[in-house]
Structure formats: C-alpha cells, structure tokens
Fold:
Amino acid sequence: MTSVWRRQLRRISPFLFILPGALLFGTVILLACVETVYISFHDWDGMGAMRWIGFGNYAELIADPQFYVSLKNNLIWLALFMLAPPLGLALALLVNQQIAGMRIVKSLFFMPLVLASVTVGLVFGWVYDPNFGLLALIVQAFGGEPPALLSDENTVTYAIVLAGLWPQVAFCMVLFLAGLNNLSSDLIGAGRVDGARGLAMFRHVVLPQLTQVSFIALAVSVIGALRSFDMIAVMTAGGPFGSSTVLAYQMYEQSIFSYRFGYGAAIATVLFVIMAAFITWYLLMMNRMERRG
Amino acid sequence: MTSMQKGSSILGASVSRRRLLVGAGTAIAAASLFSPAVAKGGEVKIISNLGGAEQRAVLARVAAAYEAKTGVKVVINNMDHEAHKTAIRSYLAVGAPDICFWFSGNRMKTFVVRDMFDDISDLVAREGLADKLGVTLSAVTVDGKQYGLPMAGILWGLFYRKDVFAEKGWAPPKTYAEMLALGQSARSAGMAPMAMGTKELWPTGGFFDHLNLRINGLDKHMALMEGKVAYTDPMLKPVFDTWEELIKADFFSPNGSSFGWEQAGAMLAQKKAALMDLGGFVQSAFPKEERDQIAYAPFPELVSGMARYEDFSVNSIHIPKKAANKEGARDFLAFFYAPENLGDFIEAEGGIPPRNDCPPSKDALVNTAVEELKKVKGTAQYYDRDTDPDMAQEGMKGFQEFTIKPERREQILARLEKTRARVFK
Amino acid sequence: MYPRPIPEESPRARLFYMAGVALVLLLWLLPLCAVMLTSIKSTEEIMAGAYWTWPQRFSLIDNYTAVFTQTAMARFFLNSLIITVPSVILVLILSTLTGFVLARYRFPGNWLVFALFVGGNFLPAQIMMIPVRDLMVSLGLYDTFWALIIFHTAFQTGFATLFMRNFISALPDELFQAARAEGASPAQTLIHVVAPLMRPALAALAILTFTFVWNDYFWAVVLTQSDTVKPVTAGLNNLRGEWTSAWNIVAAATIVVAIPPVTMFFLMQRHFIAGLTMGAVKG
Structure:
C-alpha cells in the first residue's frame, strides 16, 4: 500500500515540481500575451467598452510611417548590440590576470551591469547634454562645436544605443570571464607546445571553447536590445519627434499618452511575431548544440 | 573544474550571509505587511501629483490640522507628475482614493463622460462657492454640474529678467517687429532670444497656442482644438509662416529638443537666454534670492486689432466616483478650500488663486498675473488640455519636428490632418 | 590560464599592465565618476551651471542627508527590499524545481514547456502591461507589495528556468544514475544530489534576479500608486520631478539607489563568476 503510494508519488512528483512555476508563469506571463493579441483586434481607450474592429488596427499600422521608424530603430538596436559580445570578450581578456587587486578591478568593470537602466539613462543624458555635458566639455576642449546627439534625428538612436551598450558590454564581459575560467588548460598547454601563439592560438584553440558562452552572450544581448524601453523613456521619451522610438516604446506611447490600447496591443503583437522568429532560431540552435554534446 | 572548488570552498560564508539577508527581509516584510493601517475615525486617502516640495509641505500641514481638528486620518500619496497622468486611469477604475488632483476643462471632461468623477455640485452649493469662484467655475462645470474644485491657475506669457533688461536697455516686445529686433540684440549680446526646451513636447503646444490666439483669435483656435478645422486650413498658414521666420532667425535656444523646460528655465535664470514662454512656475528654476528679478510680459501682438486672448490653465481637485469615503472627502475638501488654507497652498506654487477671497498674494508675479487676467478678453487652457489627448500627442510631436525641420511643414500638417480626421470622426 | 599570465618576476611588465588597465577603467567609469562628483557639489554651484568642474565646496554630507531627510527615499528603499527579497527567494525555489524537471525528465511536451518559458522571457515585458494590470486589479492586489512580488517572480522564473535547466543538465549523468540505482526519489535526488552542487549557481542567479527586480521602473509605475508600496526607482523619478534643477540631490539619490545591488554584487562576486561558469557556461 505505502509502496504503491510511494511509486505513484514518485511518478507524479516531477509534475508536482514543475506545477507552481509553470502555473505562475502561465497565468501571469503567457495569458497576458494571449490577452494582448485579443485586445489588438479592438478599438479600446483602456476604460470604456471594447469594440471589435478585426484587423483595423493592423491595417492602420501598415500605413503608419512611425511604425517603420520604430522598426528601423529596433533593427539598429539589435545590430549594434551584437557588438557587446566581442567588446565584452576584449575586456575579459584584458583583465583575466591573477594579480593582487585584480578582483577589485574586475568588480569595478562590472559596475554598469548592476545599475538601473533609469540610472544609466540619467547619467548618459547628462553626458550628452549639449550645454553642460561631459561630451560637450571634451569636444570644446579640442575646439569643436559640441554636438547635440539627442536632438538630431540621425544620431539620437545611436547615442542611446551607446548608453545601452555600457551595461551590456559589462554583462558579456562577466560571461566571458566565466568562460575563460573554464578553458581546458590541457588544450591551451597543447597549443602552446605546438607553437600556436597570438591570433592563431586565439582563433583555433580559445574561441572554439567559447562557443557556448558566445551563444549565451548573444542571447542576453538580444534580450538587452529589447529592454531598450527604459533607456529611451528616460533619455528622449522617443524624441525628437518620435525619431528614437522602438516598437515597445511606440506601443507604450500609443496606449498611455494617446489612450489607444487596441492600437498599442497591435504594435505589441507585431513585436511578438518578430520575436517569435528569433526565439525559434534560438531554441533550434540550443537543441542542436545539446545534441552535439 | 577549479571554479567549482572555488565556489564550494567559500560556500559557508556565502550561505550565512544570504540567510542573514533573507531573515532580515522576511522580518521587515512581516512587520509591514500585516500592520493595521486604518486609524479610528475613518480616513481620507489623497493622491497628489504635486511636484514642488513647498506645496507638498502645505498640503501635509493642512492635512495635519484637519486630523487634529476632526480625528480623521488623512493619507497623502505623492506621485510623479507625469507618471500620475498614466496612473489616474487605472486608479479611477479600481483602487480609487477619496480625493485626487487633476486638470479642469477637457481633461476633466474625459473622466466625467466616463462617469468616473463624482458630481460635487452639492458641496459647491453648501459652501456657497459659486459667487467666490467667478470664471474658473466654468472650467469644472459640465452640463451645469460641478465635478471638481478649481485649484491654481497658470497664466501663460513671456518671462524675462528685470536686471538683464535694465542693464541692456531692452523692453519686453509689444509687437512682432519689436520681437524680431529684441532677438537680434539678444543674439549680439551672446544670448539666446528665447529659451525653449521641448523634450517633454508640451512647450511647443503652448507656443503654437500663443501664435494662433494672436493671429486667428479665440473662436477659431477653439474650433481647431475641437477638431472642427483642418490642420491644412489656410488660416494656419500665417501661424506657421511666423513661426518659421522666428526659427530661421535663430530665435530659439539651440538643440531645444534635448532638454526639458527646467533646463530652459535655468538658461533664463543664468542669463543665457532673454525670454521664455511659460507660466509663473518658471520661478522654481531660479534660486530663491533671485526670484524677485522675474517679470512677466504678455505675448506680443501679431495682428493689430486682435483682442487679447491668453492661455489660462486651471488645475483642479476631484472626488472619484468610486471613492470609499465620499462624505469624508467632501468634509476635507471644504476644510482645504477655506480661503487661508487654499491661499497658502496656491501661494506655494506661484499660481493664481481661484477664489476671490483668498488673502492677497505676497508674490509680485502672482499679483501681476491677477491684474493682467482682468485685461484678457477670453481664455483657452493649453494645447494639450483643450484638444483630444491623442490629437495633442501627435500635434505636439509635429510641432516639435517643425521647430527642427521647418521645411517639412507640408508633410507634418498632412499627418496632423490625418490624425484629426481619425480622432474627431 | 588564458591569456598567458604576466610573469611575476617582471615588475615592469606588471606596472605597465596595471597602468593600462587603470586607464581603461577610468574611461569606462568616467560617466559614473562624473555623477559621483555632481553628488557632492553644493546647490549654488549647480544653480550657477558648474556641473562637471571640481567642487569648490564639498556638500557630501548635506546632499546625502537631504536625500534621506527631505525626501521619502528611506521609505522607498525599505519598500524595494520588501519587494525584492521575497521575489528573489521565490524565483530561486521555483526555477530550481522547474529547471530540475526540464533537465532530467523526459515527458511529452517537455520541450514545449521549456520553449514557452524561454520564449516568454525573451518578450519585452511592456507587451503584458494591460492584462497584468487588470489581473492584479481583479485579484485585489493592485497597489500592494504582492502585485510586484508576483509579477517579478513570474517573469524572472522564465530566465531563471533557462539558467537552472542548463546548469542541471550539465551535471554529469553518473550522479543521477547512481541516485536512481540507490532508489532515491525525485525529491531526494533534488535535495541530496543536485542542491549541494547548485549553490554557486544559485548565488549567481540571486545576484542577477536581485539586480533585475531592484532596478525595475516600468512595473513600479504600472502596479503601484501609494508611497507605502512604491519602490525606490519610482521614488527616484519622483525626485527628478521635485528637484528639477538640483542635479546634486538627484545624483546623490541615484548613487543611493545603486548601493544595494552593488554591495550585493561585491559580497558575492566570486560565487557569481563561479556560478555563471557552471550554470550558463558548461565546461
């Protein structure tokens, strides 16, 4: 009797283990996503009654020039955030030495990672200020005209991305430090015996061992690029005239400032679809890597 | 696997530290989650969006006095001014406080038509406020009923530093020609003629208002606000012509879209700009001892013979329909709205008191504004308070783009017209 | 060890190296140093527009005292702790359970469940704003600590599950075969086999989760309204509105907000690297 019961328990316990997490994640996160898709088919001001309009919001979105600005900026964010892994790797290589005091130095390098993006946005807002900013000061010292990066539609997104890269590079650096810690000393030693040095050593011996960590650095960088919202909200609020918005910010702006929750939800859904493509790729890669070993 | 050894060798220390942290956290959580919050004698819950520390202090003082007098606890929650604009739409639907701060006019009406503000005509009648409020009463009235009490009024116009103008021998411009001439002198003195920070968009809306009110007058302006006139209408051509001319004459502080009004205000305070188009609250950008240098001048006349219309926006205070303690809220509002209390509160903001029996202000700027207001033929509130919020957002964004790229005027106006057609269908 | 360690017997190379690192570090932290500098300047200097020059008068004590006495930051600080600490603990527990099951048990839909966890985590959280707000409202949790605790726990469980699953599947199979041979139940395996090996990973995850939750601003604004519940990031933004031109006070508050995650990080730094090494980065 007890043994039957115990065997039953044993069979269902994995199920019991996964239940609380799955339930919570399912009801709060996944259901919310489904509901967002549902809202996107409505005309809704967030307070009154919802009116079904089918694909009305999507039809409008396709004709909305702002949508393409946001989409383009999302791509810029994604593309430039791909710089975070190599830069992080470079910093990791720089500081991966066992010398007294290096631990403190490493920790200082990580600092940007733990700062709130509100803080990072605030700090870089001050740096970029064309009147009093650090950048203006430096440029003036060299006799140049201080640039107003945040009020030029051509530079604004790049300026915010640069600020966003700061903590992201720190994150990648941490990951690569972990990866370097884990290199097989046998392989490195063998490489050194074979006379591999410099770039050859790096390319043929070190990098192959960092594939997994590079993949993770890439993934967190993509997530980071999508968390651009806070930074944009603090630094420019999407301006000047909407030229630095990304889809997440446009969705927020339409919902909150313009009271168009249905339209906002439609933008969110498009973002969702784009991400689904990336997520699929990610999962396939992961699956393949796991099967390999 | 050196890392693994490293990890476990110091594990003991880390665990105890973590336990400590966890223990402390749980204790704090338990203490504050379960402590009873409601005092005897009921409570009145207020959500305020007040930015100024002085104003918050006055509100807290009035609340304390009320508590001492009645034994009713008053709970004040302060929110960031911008975040509050978002939050109010949640909390009016759920978790409403008993009293909240907001804006009169069209912004109030948005919630009145959705039945989210309580009709407080009874309070207005009981306190006999109709005679004491005058024009501001209409700003909180919909279909003959009052849905809020007017608070500080802001008269918009030009602000400058007396000492700078005296030193340079300048006078505030009365006409467009004088405005352009002043711009020239300011630039040759190494100053920006007008400080404008448009990061938060709204200052562009105000500047548009002031041009449009001077050129087309109040009725046509309000028709545009209500969506009855197209943004491509020829009546707006002189408005944007004038604006474009000012932009091309470098009238505005450069890179305006990279900073907010506070920094623009600081430029005025630091004598880096000659003028600023704002409300009396510009004083908060000045050090206290320099505030008596600030002076007001009306926006110059652009079309001769046009009557004087101004932006005069009125904040307000409301009882949500879903408030738990509507009677308590009315009682507190009556107390708060007594001339002395209200007077102190409005004074802290540098606003214009809504009741005519508040003690006279010690603030010269306020007294000027009160006098100036008497000369005004009619008032609008402000671009983003008078028109639909959706329209306002697109509109101000368009104006901001215009200030940077005036050559895109046609495209911008076509886009605004598209938005107008969608919003006011 | 890679790159090749700088030999101990060459002090000049070491000096040269350290100087180089110091230079890079200085550039790297320049924006942060500037904010620290601003945070110790007097209001007069700030009002006069001297933002980046060396302070003429140090107002370190004044400014930091002002943050705690003239603003409600102390209260917000406590609120943030009340929200963050339980969230981190819950995330660690839930993700250990889910990660363990997803890594070690084959069942139909295993991959799908995992894909949903990962997928949900990759989405920008703003997408869920409206439904989550409505959910908290209907549960009567809007504007309570629980609203933020529940949301953060749910959302972070996605990333944490990915992390824990990778970590646990990287553990050698022999461990689990041995456990099974001894007839250990799943619970016993988890407690006696997995848990002892997992502490560095938990430390790393704790730091990351702590940082993410502590630094959240968006949900703080969406799910709370009262000062008694509001966390420190929302408080910081209030401060920006209230002290518009007082950059020094805002800068000081900014530093104050950053202290807990930074401290946490410094305390657990070694475990952090070790944990990432094992969790995210299979050897």
